[in-house]
Design brief:
The protein is an alpha/beta fold. It has helices at about 5-25, 50-65, 85-95, 110-120, 125-140, 145-150, 155-165, 170-175, 185-190, 195-205, 210-225, 245-250, 270-280, and strands at about 30-35, 35-40, 70-75, 80-85, 100-105, 255-260, 265. Mean pLDDT is about 75; it is low at about 1-25.
Length: about 280
């Protein structure tokens, strides 16, 4: 896949940094204590397949790490991961204390952008993580959907539709991220209330509904909401007719008065209203 100019430039900077690191450090590869490496805080990937991590861990124990991870060194003598989080996690599972790494030098802001764009190019990024990547790039760089589409070589409509999935509640998003429901299912739920989204999501999983069946369920749900009769006002247990004369006289004094259910209400908007009420009831 061809890379956008922004990503190409970033990768070029990383490559130059690798070359510099190689010149300054014999082979360019060093071994670092796993405990000194911090995860990239800008890594949008949140879900990792535990089974695949175990397989990678076993492979590393048997054959060693074939491709070093990449890190940058911080001011405290510790390291921030640039790439290779699966390899780092696999080392921890295998209880291997040190890991092969290339220490490079890259601006922190560029590191953030690189992590986001690099992940967008990955085929195994789930659609919720992809949506958050898009949102971060748009918010941090103040760019339009169209500008982002040119940057990451995705269509504008694809980016817009993916971002809309972030309007779903977290309950639905977690099932979407773990492939329990598809993006087609999720898009049908846009515009529903949180309770309705949960109900539809549970129905999709419990009844193994197709997208077409889900569309029908949501359509029926919306139609039901439209034809539901409005709740009738509860009738008051009291008879206010004996107060009709009083109500009329108070209203004639330009006072807003209401008698319903189990209360009698006179709205006060000024000191003059108070004086009228006081005068009427001979309270002065």
């Amino acid at each position: 896949m061809a890379l956008g100019r922004g990503l190409g430039e970033l990768l070029g900077e990383v490559e130059s940094a690798y070359e510099s690191s190689t010149r300054n450090n014999n082979s360019g590869i060093t071994k670092i204590d796993v405990a000194l490496i911090k995860a990239n805080p800008n890594q949008p990937r949140k879900i990792f397949d535990e089974e695949k991590l175990k397989e990678l861990s076993e492979s590393i124990k048997e054959h060693g790490l074939l491709q070093p991870i990449t890190v940058i060194e911080d001011d405290n003598g510790e390291y921030i991961l640039v790439s290779g989080e699966r390899r780092l996690r696999a080392h921890k599972i295998a209880n291997i204390d040190k890991i092969k790494a290339i220490v490079t030098d890259i601006d922190v802001q560029k590191l953030r952008e690189l992590a986001l764009i690099e992940n967008i190019q990955r085929d195994d990024l789930n659609i919720v993580e992809l949506a958050y990547c898009y949102a971060q790039l748009i918010n941090e760089h103040n760019i339009t959907h169209e500008e982002l589409s040119l940057k990451v070589f995705k269509s504008r409509s694809s980016i817009t539709n993916t971002l809309r999935l972030l309007q779903l509640n977290s309950y639905v998003q977690q099932f979407l991220a773990s492939d329990k429901i598809s993006a087609g299912h999720a898009k049908v739920m846009l515009g529903l209330s949180d309770n309705e989204q949960k109900m539809v999501c549970d129905s999709i999983i419990g009844q193994k509904l197709s997208v077409r069946e889900t569309e029908k369920l949501v359509k029926d749900l919306k139609e039901k909401d439209q034809i539901l009769p409005k709740k009738e006002k509860k009738q008051s247990p009291f008879d206010f007719k004996p107060l009709d004369t009083l109500l009329s006289k108070l209203q004639a004094s330009n006072l807003k008065v209401k008698a319903e259910k189990n209360y009698f209400k006179i709205e006060i908007n000024s000191q003059e209203d108070i004086d009228k009420i006081s005068s009427y009831f001979n309270l002065q």
